[in-house]
Write a structure and sequence with these properties.
One of its GO terms (molecular function) is lipase activity. By secondary structure, the protein is an alpha/beta fold. The protein is built from six helices and seven strands; from the N terminus they run H-H-E-E-E-H-E-E-H-H-E-H-E.
């Protein structure tokens, strides 16, 4: 039996006011990643990490504590530089493993440029051991916080991949939310 792709179902469901408020709340983090000079000024007391690395398969991101929701937020900058445009234009796809969907016949693919960028961000976070001490150590003031991954719509695939990756590492202690904004 040959592999075939199912057409994605389009959900025309209602967007709840709470969901809109949630998206708007976390949008500020996605926006500030575009202005690195403001990050320390605005979030210096809650900032846990900021990378301004930008290049092919490298995108600036920050990790900050959101006091209002008691969440650790990973905000990733969207397309801004020439290097980002080159990554966006890499139209190859690569397999995306989603453990929650194993056993389905449908093949999951992801934009290879976004996946390479996501792998680099995950590599930085793991190499620097940023999230483990914050979220897994019972003596940490952030133990039990939820983890929010946010960014802009172009990064949907690699934000999703990051979410899956972190869910596998920090399950079940961390509540995951994915917030995407079109700016």
């Amino acid at each position: 039996m040959g592999h075939h792709r199912r057409r994605p179902e389009i959900n025309h469901g209602t967007v709840l006011r709470e969901e809109i408020d949630d998206i708007l709340h976390f949008a500020r983090y996605a926006e500030v990643v575009y202005t690195p000079e403001e990050i320390n000024m605005i979030y210096s007391d809650r900032l846990h990490f900021h990378s301004n690395d930008n290049g092919i398969y490298k995108s600036p991101f920050l990790i900050v504590h959101d006091v209002d929701t008691d969440s650790i937020v990973i905000a990733i900058r969207g397309t801004y530089s020439a290097a980002d445009v080159l990554v966006d234009l890499k139209f190859d796809v690569m397999p995306l493993s989603i453990p929650e969907l194993e056993g389905e016949e449908e093949e999951h693919l992801a934009h290879s440029g976004f996946m390479h960028t996501a792998n680099n961000i995950v590599g930085d976070i793991r190499r620097l051991n940023i999230l483990g001490p914050l979220l897994n150590d019972p003596s940490s003031e952030f133990y039990g916080c939820s983890l929010v991954v946010t960014g802009h719509s172009w990064e949907l695939e690699w934000l999703l991949w990051l979410r899956i990756f972190f869910a596998m590492i920090f399950r079940p202690r961390v509540v995951m939310r994915l917030n995407l904004q079109v700016v």
